[in-house]
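so my prof wants the structure for this chain in the C-alpha cells format not the other one, which i didnt know existed until like an hour ago. anyway here's the sequence
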Amino acid sequence: MGGEALESAVLDQRGLVGDRWFAVEDDEGHFASGKSSHRFRRRDAVFDFAASTDGDAVRVHRDAQQWAVGDTDLDRVLSRAMGATVRVLPEMDVPHKDAGSVSLVGTASLHWCRDHLDVDGDFRRIRPNILVETTEPFVEETWIGSRLAVGDVMLSLVERIERCRMVDIAQDGVGTTAPLLRRLSAEREMRLGVYADVVAPGRIGVGDEVRVDRGG
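here's what i got, hopefully its the right format
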C-alpha cells in the first residue's frame, strides 16, 4: 500500500518499527504485491490503498474511506477489490519484507533519474525508508561496506537494490510515467538505492546528520 511520511522513527534489528508489519494475505499465504513470487501474489488493486499509524493502531485508507486493521469490513473491502479472499495479518514465520532491513536512497540519484532517464524521479515510486539529501548521484552506493550513523542509529550498508515493475505502477499519489524500470535496466542494471542492516538500534528524525564511517 501507499507509504507514510514520518518526522521520526524508531529502528530495531528488523528495521523501522512497524514497517510492513502487516500484509494483505490470501488463503494460500501469499502477500498482495505488484509482482508474483513464492511469497508474493500480484494484486495491483493493493496500490489503491494507503496505510498510516494512529497511536498504537494502523489504519487503511482509500479516498475518503478508512478502516482500522482488524476490522472485518476492511477485509471484505480488500477482498472485493482484489477478487479473492484476503485479510490483513501481522508478520509471522514468513517475513513481509522483500529483502534488506532498511532501504535508503539519495536525492541526487532521484534527480539524475529525472534528468537523464526522463522520468519524474518521485521517491514514492521506490518506497525508501530513508531519503538522504545528497549532491552526487549514487554516492550512497560508495557507502556499501561502510557504516552509516543517522541520529541514534548505526547502519551497515550491504548491497544495491534491484527494482521491479512496481516502480512503474500508479501509486501513493503519483501517476504512471515513462517506464522507469526499462530505463534503469538499460542504464543501471535495474539498481537504484541501497539496502542496510541495523547495527545499533535507536531513533532517527528528519534533519538528522548522516555520517559515513569507512573504517580503517
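also thought this was worth mentioning. The chain has a mean pLDDT of 93.
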